[in-house]
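Handoff note, outgoing to incoming analyst
You'll be picking up this chain. Sequence as last confirmed:
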Amino acid sequence: MRIGIDVGGTKIEGIALEDGSEQLCRLRVPTPRDDYSGTIAAIVSVVAALERETGRSGSVGLGIPGAVSPANGRIKNANSTWLNRRALQQDVEQVLGRPVRLANDANCFALSEAIDGAAAGSDVVFGVILGTGCGGGIVVRRQVLTGPNALAGEWGHNPLPAPTDDERPGPACYCGRSGCIETFLSGPGLACDYASNGGERVDAMEVARRAGDGEAIALAAMERYEARFARALTTVVNLLDPDVIVLGGGLSNIDRLYINVPPLLRPFGDDPLRTAIRKARFGDSSGVRGAAWLWE
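Most recent structure output, in case you need it:
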């Protein structure tokens, strides 16, 4: 049995999978925000509850909103900031008394979709999470690609490719730079663009709904979003040439993206684009499932 734990900013979710892909049970508890010891205790309690319910012991994988520094084994770049500079993997292993595998949540998302999701059977998969941020993960032949700096897939903090004059220098990003892909393609990025061009202060999904109703300002915002998304993905195709790009996160539910973005991609060469762009099969459950699959 494989157990996956997804450590989010507001909830910690656990799932138990049969050795195939059958879900045996799942559980959610609130995340003890700003409480490192409490977070470890919550992780351990979820593992224990899953094992009580199934009557079995399992391997444990953790998905987190950050990465493990190859330099010192501690968490870095986590937006759940109380995890940063902590030896989370070792601390959880010590309490559980068994090995634990840990990966970035976007990598877990991509792994889930590559193994038995929307990209099952594909050699190279790029997973994109479009939500409050803009994460990415790479899976090659059912293995997460992490890289020596634990940065593989972090496309959201590259500059938006081929910016137009009105896109320079771009919105300020929390990373300290301006014009990052994330500032344009995240949910807040779409909402801000809409509001900055004559719209109201609404969230990204409302912008998409208004575009579906034919509102001119919302339609223009969605067209800008799709053009920017295509430019960003074109760079991914030129560098990685994935078989499938899988979209997750709240904005992955905007159906027009799957129709309008692929024709706008302009990768190098004249051949027709063969990379498929698909919606995640498991939706919000992909991250926790991928954490379990770290023991593939």
